[in-house]
Write a structure and sequence with these properties.
This protein is mostly beta strands and about 425 residues long. Strands 19, 20, 23, 24, 28 and 29 form a 6-stranded mixed sheet that branches. Strands 21, 22, 25, 26 and 27 form a 5-stranded antiparallel sheet that branches. The N and C termini lie far apart (about 115 Å).
Length: about 425
């Protein structure tokens, strides 16, 4: 090897520098042969022939032997893909089996090491399991740790992977107190619910409110609706999609029925076409202008609810297409949450009575854990019942006397929710 030196000259025409080219540099000193590798990155084979010659003899006999020197390729070990870790204060980082992230092509032994940490503590045991520890239970912050794997040979090829370890403050889930249910008479309105009054949020995280209907009562099998096709001379076709309790119908187990005065005029189950569930229904009838009511069996809840929309029957009429289906909504309650986190609840059908169970859900947003809590609220509409009076006994008095007073409420049989005059 020659080191570069500015304006330096090596060798002259009369005394040139001797350079040797080859993969191996072989020397023999005092009957000892030595082979040195010229380029430490070279891999391959070289055959060296050693000669032994008599000297000082008449014939100068000679013999030789060839030796094959082989250097196997030495590949760089690769470490990659160790995931970053984020934990909350007081928790522990997961240990890392470093061998799971190592690619070692030539089976060389390797040595693991780490660097870059300032406060975090790192330990790599004899099984190549790395453990990372915060300095104390109160520590918060982030540090990047460089994990390096090195070939345990003279070349010492190596590679590294950088992992970010983060400790965040403890994240508390939101807590919802019990939201009381409401019972009203038919045609009445539910009171708005000021959701924030029932919320406890210790961390001040931003909250997203939502709601979800919940099944109640006994699950019922699909209704045995049937159409007496032979009773009718005319028909029309309906292509529709149905939203059920704020969720799009997403199973073939749902059933849609069309009715006139409780007589079934059409039945359909949805088919998944053009990326959505579509009902294709043939509706039968004789009288144009008949008002069609629709009901849908919700297989997820095991009950039947009414559809808000109505259609009039007209012979040979076509309502909706697969590309532009008629849209229907089946629900007992309408629920909305405004920008002030006030829930407004209304009935979709003024004649409906019954109970719906609704979960109101508070979700931590812009947080790692996305914790949530919910409160189940019952909304009940009871049907109107005419007041019933018990029999009031007749009174007979003598002339000059007064009839006895009596409290009419004592003779009233009436649900508590109804107002009576």
């Amino acid at each position: 090897y020659i080191s570069f030196t500015s304006n330096e000259a090596y060798g002259t025409p009369q005394d040139a520098v001797q350079l040797q080219a080859g993969h191996l540099l072989v020397s023999v000193t005092e009957n000892t042969a030595r082979a040195e590798i010229v380029d430490s990155l070279w891999a391959g084979s070289e055959i060296i022939q050693f000669n032994a010659t008599d000297y000082g003899t008449l014939h100068n006999y000679t013999d030789s032997a060839s030796v094959n020197f082989t250097i196997l390729p030495d590949y760089t070990p690769l470490v990659a893909g160790i995931p970053d870790q984020t934990i909350e204060q007081g928790s522990d980082f997961q240990t890392i089996n470093l061998d799971n992230y190592l690619t070692e092509f030539d089976g060389d032994s390797v040595v693991w090491s780490y660097s870059g940490n300032v406060e975090l503590m790192v330990d790599i045991d004899e099984n190549n399991i790395a453990a990372v520890y915060p300095p104390n239970t109160d520590w918060l912050g982030s540090e990047s740790i460089i994990i390096t794997v090195t070939d345990d040979n003279p070349n010492a090829f190596f590679s590294s992977d950088t992992i970010l370890f983060t400790v965040l403050p403890l994240d508390h889930p939101p807590q919802l107190a019990e939201i009381p249910g409401q019972t009203v008479g038919i045609g009445s309105q539910f009171e708005p619910i000021y959701l924030d009054k029932f919320l406890t949020e210790l961390d001040g995280d931003k909250i997203a409110w939502s709601y979800a209907f919940s099944p109640i009562g006994e699950w019922k099998s699909p209704p045995e609706w049937s159409v007496q096709i032979q009773d009718y001379e005319s028909s029309m076709n309906l292509t529709t999609v149905v939203t059920i309790r704020d969720g799009v119908s997403d199973t073939s187990a749902n059933v849609l029925g069309a009715f006139v005065d409780d007589v079934c005029r059409g039945i359909a189950e949805p088919q998944f076409i053009l990326g959505r569930w579509i009902y294709f229904m043939t509706i039968y009838g004789d009288t144009n202008g008949d008002s069609l009511d629709f009901r849908v069996y919700d297989s997820g809840f095991g009950d039947v609810i009414s559809v808000v929309e109505k259609i009039e029957f007209f012979s040979n009429n076509v309502v909706g297409t697969p590309d532009n289906p008629f849209r229907m909504e089946a629900a007992n309650l309408s629920i909305s949450i405004d920008s002030s986190n006030v829930a407004h609840i209304g009935t979709m059908n003024l004649s409906w009575s019954g109970t719906e169970a609704v979960y109101f859900i508070a979700l931590d947003t812009e947080t790692r854990n996305q914790y949530s809590d919910s409160s189940l609220v019952m909304f009940t509409v009871i049907p109107a019942i005419a007041p019933v009076m018990a029999e009031i006994s007749d009174q007979t008095i003598d002339e000059g006397e007064s009839f006895a007073y009596f409290d009419l409420d004592d003779y009233l049989v009436q649900p508590e929710t109804n107002l009576v005059t």
